[in-house]
Fold:
Amino acid sequence: MQATLIRGARLIDGTGGPAVEPAVLLTARGVIEAVGEEAAARAAEASAVWDCGDQTLMPGMIDCHNHLSLDPTLDNYLHRMNDPLPELTIRAVNSMKIDLMAGVTTSRCLGDKGFLDIACRKASATGTLLGPRLLVATRGIRAPHGHGFVGYPFGGVEKIRSAVRENLQAGADLIKVYITGTLRGPRQILHFYSREEIQAVVDEAHRVGVPVATHCIGGPGLRLALEAGIDVIEHGYFMTDQEIELVGQYDRWLVMTPSIFFADARIRTLPPDLIEGHLRQREEVGQRLAAAIRAGVHYAVGTDGMHAGLAREIAYLVELGATPAAALQAATADAAKVCGLADRTGTLQKGKLADCIGVEGNPLEDPGALERVRTVILQGRLVKAERGASQA
Ligand SMILES: [Zn+2]
Structure:
C-alpha cells in the first residue's frame, strides 16, 4: 500500500470541535486511513511524508453555489454569459484551477451554458484538467419572462418536463430552477413560475432521485417551492421572519451567497441598471441573512461564481453573526450535506476522501486565514504546495 503521512501544526477535522495539535493524517489510495494519534502510531506504514510545517490542516472547502463561466472581474459580467461557447469554456477551465488553488476541492455548479459543465466535471474527475470535484446542474431552468442570466427559458408544464429530462439525460447531478429575481420589487417579491410548473420540475427530478435547488429570494414563490418539495433554497436574501420559520419547519437547506450584495468590486461590474438596486437593498439583505442565521436555519455558503472568493463569503457569514466554527462548517461539513456527499468529504475522518487543505493561521480564530491557502490535497493528490508540504 502506498501510504502518505501528512503533518501540520494543528488540525480542524470539520466536525465542530476545536483545533487539535499537532495535525497528523495517514492517507492511501485517496482515502483517509487514520487521523491524530492513530495516524502517528502508524507513521511507519507511510512511504511518503508531506510536512506542512506551521499550517492548519482542515477539510478541503466546498463551494455550494458556483458557475464555472461566470466571471465578476469582467465588466457587465452577467451579460457576458451570452459570449460564444468556446469563450465560456475557456473561462470555465480557468475558473476551475483558480477555485482549486483557493482551497475548493468540491464545487456545486448551479448552471452553465451548453452543457459545458458536464465536460468540465469529466475532465476534473479524470485528471485531464486541474479543478475541484464538480456537481453540476447543467442548464438552469427559468421562465421566459423571468430572471436568470445563466439559465435557459422554458415555459409551461410540458416544456419544463422535457427540459428537466434533457438535463438529466445529459447527466445533471441536480436541477436548478429560477423562481424569483435577485432584487425585490418596490412592493412585493415576484415569482415567475406557477405552482404546477414548479411541481413539474420537482416531480421529474425526484422520480429519478435527483435533488432540486431554486434561486429564490423569498415571497410567495418561496412557499410554493417548499410545498412542491424543493430541496435547497439558494440566496434567500429577503425572507421575512415567517418565511425563515417556514424553511426551518420544512427542514430545508439555505445556501447563502452574500458577496453579490456586499462586495463592492462585484457590484461595480454588474450591468449598469442593476448597480443602484444592489447598493440600496444591501442593508435589508444583511438584516435578513442575519435573521436566518439567528433563527437556526440550516445553511451552507457559496460564491455564485466569485472565483477564489469562498474565504470572503465565510467572513461575511461571521460578520452576519455566525460563529467562526459554524461559518467554516457552512463550507465544509454542512456543505457536504447539501451536496449529498457527507459520507465522502467535508470532514477529515477515517474513511473519507483525502480532501485536505493547509492554511496559514487558525481560521477558527481568524477567518482571514482561509485567504492564505498554502497546501491543497484533492483526493490524496498534492495539487498545491506553497511554502511547505515539502516531500520528505
Ligand atoms: Zn447563481
